[in-house]
Amino acid sequence: MFRSLRRARGLRRALCAAAAALLLPLAGAQTAHAAAPGAGYWHTSGRQILDAANQPVRIAGINWFGFETGNYVVHGLWSRDYKSMIDQMKSLGYNTIRLPYSDDLFKGAGAVPNSIDFSGGKNADLQGLNSLQVMDKIVSYAGQDGLKVILDRHRPDSGGQSALWYTSAVPESTWISDLKALAARYAGQDTVIGIDLHNEPHDPACWGCGDTATDWRLAAQRAGNAVLSVNRDLLVFVEGVQTYAGVSGWWGGNLMGAGQYPVQLDVANRVVYSAHDYATSVAQQSWFSDPSFPDNMPGVWDKYWGYLFKQNIAPVWVGEFGTTLQSTVDQKWLAALVSYLRPTSTYGADSVSWTFWSWNPNSGDTGGILKDDWVTVDTVKDGYLASIKAPGFPSTGGGGGGGGGTAACSAAYTVSSDWGSGFNADVKVTDTGTAAIKSWKVTWTWSGSEKVTNMWNATYTQSGATVTAVNADHNGAIAVGGSVSFGFGGAPGGGAVPAVSCTAT
């Protein structure tokens, strides 16, 4: 999506035919699998994405944009350290980061970031680095935290999106050369699981028309094979177009032609199809005014991209979806889409993968998971996604893993607000051992009559004045040196900060 610094992207022009969508039968529900570890490089089998041990995995992530803009780096580093940002993503249960970029990063000696705050020791290890070197640091730390990364060729240059994968200034040869350079750069680093070849192809881009100048499916095959020629382990994420057979939809969101004209690559089991889907805060569509809305939405999604999953043709990843949540229509849309993507608790990784747009608050037509201070979480928006979040993955660096290390942790208890009759507190759990932590437990005993009233990102029991908090499913794993946080409300306020103990396994 094309957004930067509260500058709303021009309205997506997507005139959608009102033809009734085919309601394809829902595949039979399956018992949820055990949490897949996600180790190594991934591949596909039917509608599932599998790890190196053939365990199914679910991408449940977030878009963090900025490299594709004139800042040439992810946004928000003007106010926070990048490591704290990634730690917070993990603590909220996101397991993958989609990183948009533009080909400007490869020009000359490489683009240089222009909006990083180094004061107070923030982002100290990014000083003097160009944009690609900063990307290296983000990828490395994300891997240590057990997050995966998908690189997204979002724009040919920082000026804006393009309908086709090339422009007069950035020809196809440059696009492919830069894709190959990224694939080679991260070869052997399985934190980077794949590349999204081009963001939101739209008219005059076509699918299966056979014109090499406009057929996005043929271009995706050329680019995908080029990527795999230098790094055959990567997944190749291919978005849709705007219009197929006279039926239009969201930019990049129309995969109606992929069933008849699949993307065929030289390396088997590498293609993941990607759709984008939005609500009325981005643009109006005919289905929002259908009298049966939101009950009509599963049929709409079936028609445009859901059939690929339901017919076991290929995995589907909704690479972007978002909304400001200001209207009732948008709230109903998001609730319906989350249900359609399938809850992890019921289906495990046999579900549609996703990355929400966006982490950033400065997305003009959607806002973000973070509020404008770049710290506070929009808990309502984040809460809509709770049922489709999925377990994190093993650390890919930073001293984590097996091999005889010792699991150990520490916990720091901080009162964030106290109004007398009640208070809020945050607890930061840090891996202080020599091995990655799989799970943790934090215990404290108050000296007064305090009671926990609610807790987030952990579960708890309280016996008298003693509270025991245990990690949630999404934040039990911590890389060596890494940290996660949970918070809670309690009453009454005014009490002393207790001593806190932490136990790790």
Detailed description of the structure:
It comes from Streptomyces sp. R41. This protein is an alpha/beta fold. 18% of the residues lie in helices and 23% in strands. The chain contains 8 helices and 21 strands. An 8-stranded parallel barrel has the order 4-5-6-7-8-11-12-13. A 4-stranded antiparallel sheet has the order 14-15-20-17, with helices on one face.
Instruction: Estimate the helix proportion, in percent.
Output: 10-25%
Spatial order of strands in the largest sheet: 4-5-6-7-8-11-12-13
The first-to-last residue Cα distance is: 41 Å
Mean of pLDDT: 90
Reported for the largest beta sheet, the result is: 8 strands, parallel, barrel
Beta content comes to 15-25%
> Any idea what the shape is?
globular
Number of helices: 8
Secondary structure class reads: alpha/beta
Oligomer description: single chain
N-to-C series of helices and strands: EEEEHEHEHEHEEEEHEHHEHEEEEEEEE
Radius of gyration: 23 Å
Strand runs, count:
21
| Residue windows where pLDDT falls under 50 for at least 5 positions | 2-36, 398-404
Primary descriptors:
single chain; 505 residues; alpha/beta; eight-stranded parallel beta barrel; four-stranded antiparallel beta sheet; 8 helices; 21 strands; disordered N terminus; signal; cellulose degradation; hydrolase; CBD2
Task: Report a brief summary of the structure.
The chain has helices at 82-91, 131-144, 172-185, 216-230, 297-310, 328-341, 344-347, 379-384; strands at residues 43-45, 48-50, 56-57, 60-63, 96-102, 148-155, 192-196, 235-239, 243-244, 247-248, 271-278, 316-322, 353-356, 409-418, 423-431, 440-445, 451-456, 458-463, 466-471, 483-491, 500-504. By secondary structure, the chain is of the alpha/beta class. The strands form 5 sheets. The chain has an 8-stranded parallel β-barrel with strand order 4-5-6-7-8-11-12-13. A 4-stranded antiparallel sheet has the order 14-15-20-17, covered by helices on one side. Strands 18-19-16-21 form a 4-stranded antiparallel sheet, with no helix packed on it.
